[in-house]
Structure formats: C-alpha cells, structure tokens
C-alpha cells in the first residue's frame, strides 16, 4: 500500500466517506478488514444508518392516498433469510385503528431449522431496523400451514411486532 493510500485510509473522515459508498452487504463485511474499520463502523452514525442499525433523522412519511408509499425495507431481509422465509409479496402498508403506520409482511416459513449464524446472540441482523425511517409496528402473516389451497385460509398465523423506537428484524423473526 502506498503512503498516500495509507494516509487516506487512516484519516477517519475520509475512510468514513469511502465506506459510505459501499453497498450495505459490503459495508457489513468491511468490519472484518481490521479493528480500526470495525470500530469506525460501530461508532459512526451515518454508517450505522446505512446498515439499518440506527434510525435516520427524517420522519416517516406515508401517503394517505393511492399509490401508497412505503419506507425502504431493509435489503438484508430478503438476502439474509433467503431459503428460510419465502416472501411472495411486497410489504403492504396498513394504518391501525390508532392511526399508526404499520407494515404487513406476508411470509411462508420454508424451514424451521435456522443455520448457526442466525442463532449467534450478537449477530448484527438481530438489531437491524426493518425499514428506514423505522416503523413502530409490523404485522407478520405466516401462510406455511396453508399450502396452495384456494378459498378460506386455514392455518394462517398472524403475529405483530412492536417497538416505539422502530421494529428490528429480530422482533419480526421472533414475533411468535
């Protein structure tokens, strides 16, 4: 590594700016490069927001007229749970009786056996927000017991995850 490259990468502000241009999965893996990078990623609010670990400062704006808008859903949701949770539809917007905005996920649990990486108590996915800006409620409908039958749905389980500071991915997974 040249001395110029070394100086740039050892300047916190420059390194943070460079890391902000990485796609979220690469940013997550960048923590493995060295302890300096890991420390920066863990203490930088912009980097934490990019990883859905800290809420954005912008308020949640959801239109009340069609076409309804949704806050961006964590891109790790689909990639991290591929093969374990099969999401057949896009998340839907819902307004509760209390006027809260909620996101509804229609999921089918494919496998009840989670890989060891998911069981690790300190795994970063557990603390990731479901959306940015965060929603306070998420409704999970599990159609795993329904199959492909047409007509009235039996075996549909409905769970709700709530968190005033923003629903985290682990709260959706463990909503049962």
From TrEMBL:
F-box domain mapped to chain residues: 13-44
Entry-linked Pfam families: F-box
InterPro entries per record: F-box-like_dom_sf, F-box_dom
Name of the protein in question: F-box domain-containing protein
């Amino acid at each position: 590594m040249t001395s110029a490259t070394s100086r740039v990468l050892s300047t916190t502000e420059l390194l943070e700016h460079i890391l902000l241009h990485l796609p979220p999965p690469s940013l997550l893996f960048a923590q493995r490069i060295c302890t300096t990078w890991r420390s920066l990623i863990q203490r930088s609010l912009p980097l934490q927001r990019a990883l859905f670990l800290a809420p954005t400062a912008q308020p949640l704006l959801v239109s009340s007229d069609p076409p309804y808008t949704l806050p961006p859903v964590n891109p790790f949701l689909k990639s991290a749970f591929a093969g374990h949770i099969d999401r057949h539809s896009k998340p839907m917007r819902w307004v509760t009786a209390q006027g809260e905005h909620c996101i509804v996920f229609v999921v089918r649990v494919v496998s009840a056996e989670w890989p060891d990486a998911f069981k690790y108590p300190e795994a970063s996915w557990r603390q990731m927000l479901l959306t940015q800006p965060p929603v306070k409620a998420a409704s999970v409908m599990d159609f795993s017991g329904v199959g492909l039958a047409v007509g009235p749905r039996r075996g549909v389980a409905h769970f709700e995850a709530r968190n005033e500071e923003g629903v985290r991915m682990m709260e959706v997974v463990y909503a049962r």
